[in-house]
Design a protein that fits this description.
The structure is a single chain. The chain has helices at about 10-25, 35-45, 50-60, 65-70, 75-80, 90-105, 110, 115-125, 130-140, 150-160, 170-180, 185-200, 215-225. It is mostly helical. The protein folds into two domains: about 10-25 and about 150-225, Helix-hairpin-Helix base-excision DNA repair enzymes (C-terminal) (Endonuclease Iii, domain 2, Orthogonal Bundle); about 35-140, Endonuclease III, domain 1. Helix 1 (about 10-25) packs across helix 11, helix 2 (about 35-45) packs across helix 3 and helix 8 (about 115-125) crosses helix 9. It is globular and about 55 Å long. It binds a DNA duplex through helix 3, helix 6, helix 9, helix 10 and helix 12.
Length: about 230
DNA sequence: CCCCAGGCGTCCA
DNA sequence: TGGACGCATGGG
């Protein structure tokens, strides 16, 4: 159990301040259109972003970076265009399904006019859209305050002692929802800063802890955990 | 050669 | 409810 010194209500904003001081604003996920962000959210599942960029460029080049473009493209051709993003057969099918869902909702604007909790449930009903993809769409495409949890967030938070390494998505998300003000810009930057830290110093195999702005918090957490 | 990357659905106990 | 597995390319 967390010791009295591991004050989450204090630590959650503190971590943000430190990461922001170190890495600055990230201005993350500046897709040209909300639809492009939606496509990117699906394509980036378990995939390096550089590979997703190639796929999006190929779609754009083919004039298919729009709901009607995706809809009119045969699935095998779509798969070929997004080949670089990996799992291309699966993602082509799921992208088709997601676009069909957008059409059935009357377009992205109509879809995004739904209340956030309803919209999240509706997105989760689409095959291939799990919690992270749904929250990425909500936050980065629809501009709604839904905190995104990803592998970087889990790794950093578990090393900090904020959560167990096998924490569920909903539990970790609840930690941020509970200890932060509801603010789209803050959620946007915070998630991006976790990624920046995870790519830079908080690496899977060889973390460079001496360069980590959270090193003292991390060391303290490990001491508390060991003493428990 | 290895591991890793902004997951998700399915299957099975 | 939760753990194993398939999906697949590109970079370090």
């Amino acid at each position: 159990m967390a010791g009295p010194d591991l004050d989450l209500a204090h630590l959650v904003p503190e971590v943000y301040e430190r990461l922001f001081a170190r890495f600055g604003p990230q201005y993350w996920w500046p897709g040209d259109t909300p639809f492009e962000v939606v496509v990117g959210a699906l394509l980036t599942q378990n995939t390096a972003w550089t590979n997703v960029e190639r796929a999006i460029a190929a779609l754009s080049q083919a004039g298919a970076l729009s709901p009607e473009g995706i809809r009119e493209l045969p699935e095998t051709e779509l798969a070929a265009l997004i080949r670089s993003a990996g799992y291309f057969n699966q993602k082509a099918r799921r992208l088709k399904g997601l676009v069909a869902f957008i059409y059935s909702a009357g377009g992205l604007d109509a879809l995004f006019s739904r209340p956030i909790s309803r919209l999240r449930e509706d997105l989760l009903g689409v095959t291939g859209v799990g919690p992270e993809t749904a929250d990425s769409i909500l936050l980065y495409a629809a501009g709604m305050p839904s905190f995104v949890i990803d592998a970087y967030t889990r790794r950093v938070c578990s090393r900090l002692g904020l959560c167990p390494s096998d924490v569920t998505y909903d539990d970790l998300q609840a930690l941020f929802a509970t200890h932060l003000p509801i603010d789209v810009r803050l959620y946007n930057e915070y998630h991006a800063l976790f990624v920046a830290l995870g790519k830079d110093v908080c690496r899977p195999r060889s973390p460079r802890c001496s360069e980590c702005p959270l090193a003292d918090l991390c060391a303290h957490a490990h001491k508390v955990i060991e003493g428990a």
